[in-house]
Amino acid sequence: MGEVPSDCPGPDTERCTGDAPKAPVRPFDAEFHFSVVNSGNATATDDSVLSDSLEAALRTTSTRERWTVTNGGPWCAATPEEGVRRTQGWKLHVSATPVSAPDVLDRALPVLLEAHSPFKFTASRNHLAMLNDRHTSRGHSGKFLTVYPDSDQEAVELAERLHEATDGLAGPRVLSDRPYRPESLVHYRYGAFVEQRRLSHDGFYAWVIEDPEGNPVEDKRVGQYVPPDWVTCPFPNPPAAKSGDQPRPHSNGVLIGDRFLAKEAIRHTNRGGVYRATDTETGEKVIVKEARPHVGTDRTGCDERDRLRTEARALEHLAPSGLSPRVISLFEQATHVFLAEEHIPGTPMRNWVEERIRSNGWRQAIPDTEPMARRVVSLLRGVHDAGMVVRDFTPNNIMVLPDGELRLIDLELAVPVADSEVPGHVGTPGFSAPEQLRGAAPDPRADFFSLGATLCFLAIGDAPVLVEDSGPGQRSPHEALTEWLTARWHGTGLPDAHRTLVLDLMRPEPADRPTAVDAATVLREPRSTASPRSPHRLAAENAEHAIDGLAEHLLATMQPDADRLWPVSCAHGSPDPCSVQHGAAGVLGVLTRCRALGVADTARLDHALATAGDWITARMRTTDGRPPGLYFGEAGIAWALHDAAEQLGDERLAAESRSVAARLPVAALNPDITHGTAGIGLTLLRLWQRTGDPELLANAAKSADHLVASALDGPDGLSWATPAEAHSKLAGRRYHGFAHGTAGVGYFLAATAEATGDDTYRAVATRAGETLLHHAIPDSDMGLWGAGTGDPATAPHWCHGASGIGTFLARLYRLTGDDRYRTWATMSARAVVESSSRGVLAQCHGLSGNAEFLLDLHEITGDRSFMDDAHRVARLVHSSRTYQDSRVVFPDERGGLTSTWGDGMPGVLSFLLRLVHGGGRMWMVDPATHGSTT
């Protein structure tokens, strides 16, 4: 506490005005993704090609022939032909805004072209706008131009010359670097000059540099200046800022504006911060928001400071109504703008809904939604009566006070009704009206659309982030919304008139939407009958059409010349492009199953399987240090290559699979299914099943022996943990679930017991099952679990919750015949079904993985009701589809088309294939799969 962050004005965070988890008052590394987007920042600027400036500058010099220019994608790079490029050292970053970028580049280029150091810059102003956006990672923002000096001396000389050339121009502070001088656009940090990456134990790439002994060390790109401890800085110390310009350290925090004592940060973002603070003049609790200069600059030159001032004006306008926090002070310090406002006690409505979902056992019906819906409508009416348009009316921006009353917070987009000059293209996907996102002038009718989306979230705990159809036969956005909402409404216990109200409020034409007054009338009407249950089964033709569309999409989007074989849209960091969970092996496995089932054109599938196999094996040879796990490492790759080779009759690919399998260790630091020993052993069992090689079974047994020996036995039962000293996010943790904990390990031991007949493995698997029953959280007819001992019940998914634990218990029932395991597996299934109206489509933590568990129970018990439940989930999945180029595809939770097993379309395709064609569950070794080809 009391640490002043490297970005001089103090702590950087963002978001809500109410209670939230505590954080130290300093920057930290985590990236946050918030709902409000200003697409005007990213798309409304003049997208002139900045590389034209480089070509023009080169034509005026006599050194054109010694420069090689690479202009492709988001960057334009210039490299001198002579000299040897260093692999790491002190690099320079020059910041700019989309407005100032042409001037910054024009002034910098003469300096750079006289030097001998490579450099690169963003090729367009639109890309720079995205780099400077409020949501961009704090460790990457602001880096318009990067210079790789060929010596420390040149780094210092270039820094001075670039500072002089660009002095007075606008650009944000680069948080990962140290500024050359106060307010300078030039920054420096020590880091990699050429791409050097290493795969972590968790299967993600990290940028690395080498220490003096040649050991790889992470090249940290975070929101603060953290040079390696072995380097000596060649730059002169920057002049100290004037006292009084900066927030001052205090024994209990940081004093901002000589008045507000910030004790903790709510959250850090590129925009700046939000802090809990105390007004030292009055003793009142306040929230202080910060806006950094030149972040989020739009085409008019407005940045986040202007938006914070807009919020202050909106709060002042609403002050007489009492519907929002009071403004305490708006002030500027060290060019940052701060807004101190009244602290509103309570909970953001999104959290309020999620807390009720959890407390109600993840059931579909959410308690207390009807009276809350009436309060939400009243809140919006009050704001409109005060002459304001909110433009971001969402559950994130509504605070629920302890007495249930509501207040509106984070009003940075709110404007008077008559203000038609404010920038458009703003809002929150899923909640903002389409015309508002397209740039329409402020209009209360846009808020009615947001009201409908917020009432939808209140009713089902989810909001529709749907992707518009394209191509022949496309549905209107409202038709797609109607299908999506209707599939989820049953089970809410709410009248059908409320569903109709939501749909009417979210009509695409503003004139067709009812008003808040109309909404209040509907919500006051006597209760009518709830919606009838939708049909159980997904129509066969719809399922087949979806399967065909997904398979065709995967075949059409394979990119053998790219860094990733299939595109990924989700924010995963930098995962291994070859793995099962996030890479090519997962897609290869699903396409192999398509080939076995006769789905899609055989010739095209054969070509795709061969291409993918070659692509993976080529990259296996060029990447060292890949972890050994099933979902995040070499075991899963060996599995996928073997199955593809078997389908193709390709001995060369089969040999590659055997080669990968032969170097698998029998044990890893991590014990689990996804990253460690249990997944390795499971792979060895699978390959033994397919080849009959006794050595593979013997090695699988060694994996099981290791897990038996490393089990932690205590009062709470058996558990397994990754060692605390391991370089892994899982280090030291003990989990219950299938992906990382007891259920996954227990499943592997049960499978090994079935394969070997060894009673020791059977006994330990049974002890694992007993442990899980001990920690179960019964809720009427449902079974739930926390992520670990003492944790509250988590969502019933495959990775941590009831779906994955039930997956193991069902198989333990098959192994032992003990009806208790069947009972708890069935209770797990009830939890899955009850929660199915909300959630993403993924295998790992969504509907596809949950529905596969229901299919497991149908196969193991013969109970047809589980098949009916799986079809019901399939209808929910199907209602989230979109049509792209006449193909059925399924967006991920961010609206992207992701081709990853764990959270993308391959996992959805796997579920639909099994629903329609039967067969075993992928990446499992159940007896039902013996003798099959997948």
Note down, in words, how this protein is organized:
This protein is α+β, with helices and mostly antiparallel strands and 934 residues long. Among the domains are: 50-218, Phosphothreonine lyase fold; 254-342, 2-Layer Sandwich (Phosphorylase Kinase, domain 1), CATH 3.30.200.20; 347-523, Orthogonal Bundle (Transferase(Phosphotransferase), domain 1). It is built from 27 helices and 30 strands. The strands form 9 sheets. A 7-stranded antiparallel sheet has the order 2-3-5-6-4-8-7. Strands 12-13-14-15-16-18-17 form a 7-stranded antiparallel sheet, covered by helices on one side. β27 (777-779) and β28 (782-784) form a beta hairpin. The longest helix has 21 residues, at 602-622. The two termini are 56 Å apart. Residues 1-46 and 928-934 have low confidence and may be disordered.
- The appropriate CATH architecture of the domain at 347-523 is Orthogonal Bundle
The CATH topology of the domain at 347-523: Transferase(Phosphotransferase), domain 1
Overall morphology: globular
The radius of gyration over CA amounts to 29 Å
Q: Tell me what portion of residues adopts beta-strand conformation.
A: 5-15%
CATH superfamily label of the domain at 347-523 = Transferase(Phosphotransferase) domain 1
